[in-house]
Amino acid sequence: MKPLSVKNIRKTFTLSRKQRKIEQTDAARKVAVDNVSFEARPGEIFGLLGPNGAGKTTTLRCVATLIRPDEGDISVDGFSVLTDAGNVRKRIAFLTNELKLEDHFTPTYLYRYFSRLHGIDDDVANTRREAIFKRFGIDKFAEVKVADLSSGMKQKTSLAVSLVHDPDYIVFDEPTNGLDVLTARTVTDYLQELRDQGKTVILSTHILSVVEKLCDRVGIIIDGEMKAMDTLTRVKAASSDGELETLFFDLVEASAGESHA
Amino acid sequence: MRNIWTIFRKELYRVFSDRRLILMIFILPGVSIFAMYWLIGTLIHNQMEAVREHTIVIYEEHMPATVRANLESLADLDDPITFSFLDDETYDLATLKDLVREGDIDIALVFEADFEAKIDDYHIDDPPVVDILHNYGRQHSSFAYNTVSSVLETYRSDKLLGRLENPDHALIFASVYHADDIVDERRIAGQGLAMLLPFLTIIFLFSAAMSIGPDSIAGEKERGTVATLLITPIKRSEIAIGKVVSLGLLTLASAISSFIGIVLSLPRLMQADTNNIDYAIYGVAEMLLILFTLMATVLIIVGLIAVISAYARTIKEASMLIMPFYLVTMIIGIMSSFGTEPSQSLWVHFIPIYGAVNFLNGVFVFDYAVANFVVVVATSVLYTTAFVVLLTRLFNSEKVMFQK
Ligand SMILES: Nc1ncnc2c1ncn2[C@@H]1O[C@H](COP(=O)(O)OP(=O)(O)O)[C@@H](O)[C@H]1O
Ligand SMILES: [Mg+2]
To answer: What is the ipTM score, two decimals?
Structure first.
C-alpha cells in the first residue's frame, strides 16, 4: 500500500455577493488552501489541526474528489484525483457531517445500496454489515428509518455506510464534532483499530486533545497554509515549553500579525 | 448498467415504500380529476334536465298541422319534451319580440297564411316563409329553437321526398349516405377526445414530473445526500440515467392515474353531446401509438425537469425555475388542441412536446402518418440524450453541486 500524498495543492473559491458579506471582504476570490503538501502513511493516523476556516474541510474534499484543486495534485495508492477520480473513490472512505443519509431509508437498506454502488457482492456485504452493525450497536436499530434515529446513531450509521467497501484510506473531517462523549469514544477507538489494521487514516480537527490522543503525525494549517508538520513528538519538541497548545497559539498569533501587517 | 439499475430501484423504492407519496402520486391525481369532472358533468346534466323538464311556451300562427302534430308527439318520448301552445291570443311582431326577449314566450313561429299552399305550388321567386323568434341568451329559448329546427327540418325533407317521382331513388341515396356516415361518426367521436385528452395528458405529465423531480434531485442537494452519492465510484452519467429513467416511469404511472380519471369521467362530462363515449373505436395500433408517444414525451419533460432541479440549489428554487416551462407547455398544449386540424407536416414533429401533442391529436381522429411517429419518437430520444448529457455535466460540476 502506498502513502496518500498531497502535493502543493491550492484551492480558490469565487465568492458570491452574499458570501462576501459574511466574510466581510470586497475580494471576489478567496484562497481557501494555499500550497499545502503532506503525506499520510499506512498504519498511521495523520491529523490536520487548524482553527475554523483554516481550510481543513476544503483540503479533505479535494482528497475525496468532491472538488478539484486548482493547482497541485493528490495521489491515492498511485491514482491521481485529477485524472483517475474513479479509482480514488474506490479506495477511500470520506466522512464529514455534511454528508447526510436519506431520512426515509433504514440502515440496512442504505448499507446494501451503497455496497452495490461500490460493486460489493451481496454475500460479502451481508457479512460485513452484520459485523459492523454489531460493533457500533446499530443492529438493534437496523430497521428503523434514519429520520427516527438519534443523532449519535445516525453518525455511526454514516460511518458504517462509508466503510462498506473496506477501503485502505480513511479520510475523516472533524470526527468527534457534535457527538456525545460515548459515541465520540466509539468512533475514536474504531479509528485506532483501523490504523492498527495497517490502514491510512487522515483526520481533521480544531481540538488539540484529539490530536494528542490519536495522531502519529500532525500538520498545523492556518489561513490555508501549512505552518508546521512532523510527528507529534517532534512538533511538540519544537514548542517553547513542549506543549502542543503553546505552539498552536503561537502560530495562530503569528499568522494574525502577518495579515494585519 | 448495474449501477443504473441500483439507483433506479432505490428511487422507486423511495416512492413505493411511502404511503403518503403513493397517495400523492398515484391515487390523488386520478381521483381528484375524476371527482372534478364528474361534478362538472353532473352540474351540466342537472341543468340540461331542468331545461328539458321545462314546458316550452310556444306561439304560432298558421302552423301546418303535421308540424304541430310532430311537436306534440315529442311528449311521448322516453325523455319527453312538452309544449304549451298559446292559441288564444294574437300579437304583432314587435310585441312578440318583447315577449321572447323577456322570456314570457320561449319561441314564436309565424308562418305565412298560405304557407302550405306555396309549398305545393312552388315558385322560386316567391318561396314560403316562416319567421322564427327566439333568444339565444336564454337556455329554454335556445333549447326550444334546436328542437323546433329539427322538427322543421324533418318536415322539409319529407316535402322534398314527396316531390320525387320514384321514392326508391331516395332510398338508394339514403343508404349511400349512410355508409359514409360511419367513418364520419368515428372521426366526430374522436374529435371531442382530440380536443381534450392530449392537452390534459401533457399537463398531467408535467405536473406529475414537477411533483417528484425537484424533490429527487434538488432535494438531495438541499439535504446534503447528493455528496454521499458522489463519493461512490459510480459514473455521474449512471446517476443521471438512473434518475431520469426512474422519474420517467413514476411520472408515466402518475399520468396514467390521471388518464384513468379522465377516461372514467369523460362520458359524464361530455354527455351534452353523446350519452356515452365509445373508446372501442380505437384499436391496438392506436393505443400503442398513444402509449409510445406519451413515453417519448415523458422522457423529454422529465429530462428538462431533472436538469433544472440539478441546477437549482433548493426544491423551492427548482419549482420556481420550472414554472415558465410549465406555462410554455400549457400554451403549446392549448395551441395544438384548440387550433386547426392536426398538421401532417414532418417538420412540425421535430418540435419537442408540440410535435407529440399534434401527433396525438392526429391519432385521435385517425389521421396520422407513421413517418411522423418515427420523427416524434426519434427526436424525443435525441432531446432526452442531450438532457442526460447536460445532467451528467451538472453532476460533475462542483460549482453546481456544492454552491452555497
Ligand atoms: N464553496 C465555498 N465557496 C466560497 N468559500 C468557501 C467555500 N468553501 C469554503 N470556503 C471558504 O474557504 C475557507 C476554508 O474553509 P474550510 O475549508 O471549510 O475551513 P475549515 O474546515 O478548516 O473550518 C473559509 O474561509 C471558507 O469560508
Ligand atoms: Mg471544516
So the answer is: 0.90
Report the C-alpha gap between B213 and B151 in whole angstroms.
Answer: 57
Domains and CATH numbers, chain B: 2-43+189-401 (no CATH), 51-175 (3.40.190)
DSSP-derived 3-state class of residue B292: helix
Distance CA B50, CA B221 (A): 57
pLDDT tens, A5-34?
999 999 999 888 888 888 787 888 899 999
Residue A79 φ then ψ, to 5°: -100, 135
Cβ neighbors of A83 (< 8 A, separation 6 or more) are none
One DSSP character per residue, A183-233 reads: HHHHHHHHHHHHHHTT-EEEEEES-HHHHHHH-SEEEEEETTEEEEEEEHH
Spatial contact of A154 and A137, defined as CB atoms under 8 Å apart: no
Query: What's the pTM value of the predicted model, to 2 decimals?
Result: 0.80
CB A23 within 8 Å of CB A42: no
Can you tell me the mean pLDDT for B197-220? 86
Q: Write the DSSP string, A148-180.
A: GS-HHHHHHHHHHHHTTT--SEEEEESTTTT--
Quick check: B147 pLDDT over 70?
Answer: yes
On the question of pLDDT at B61 being above 50, the answer is: yes
Task: Give the long-range contacts of residues A18-27, CB within 8 A, separation 24 or more.
Answer: A19/B404
Residues above pLDDT 90, as percent of chain B: 32
Please tell me which residue of chain B has the smallest CA distance to A86.
B233
Closest by CA position to B212, among listed B5, B26, B4, B354: B26
Predicted pLDDT at B363: 83
Which letter does DSSP use for residue A2 in this model? Answer: P
The number of beta carbons lying within 10 Å of the beta carbon of residue A169 is 23
What residue owns the CA closest to ligand 1's atom 10? A32
Residue B182: pLDDT band by 50, 70, 90 thresholds? Answer: very low
Half-sphere exposure of A120 (CA within 13 A, CB side): 23
Q: What is the pLDDT of residue B7?
A: 95
Read off the amino acid at residue B146. N
Q: What is the pLDDT of residue B29?
A: 83
Task: Tell me the nearest-neighbour CA distance from A246 into chain B, angstroms.
Answer: 35
Give the residues across from A93 on adjacent strands.
A170
Whether A103 has a pLDDT exceeding 60, the answer reads yes
Chain segment B31-48, per-residue pLDDT in tens: 988 888 788 778 877 877
Q: Which residue of A has its CA nearest to B231?
A: A89
Q: Which of A178, A180, A204 is nearest to A191 (CA)?
A: A204
Distance A25 CA to ligand 2 centre (A): 20
Taking the C-alpha atoms of residue A78 and residue A76, their distance in angstroms, rounded to an integer, is 5
pLDDT at B368: 84
- Residue A48 Cβ contacting ligand 1 at under 6 Å: no
Cβ-based neighbours of A192, under 8 Å, separated by 6 or more: A45, A214
End-to-end CA distance of chain B: 32
Would an 8 Å CB–CB cutoff place A99 in contact with chain B? yes
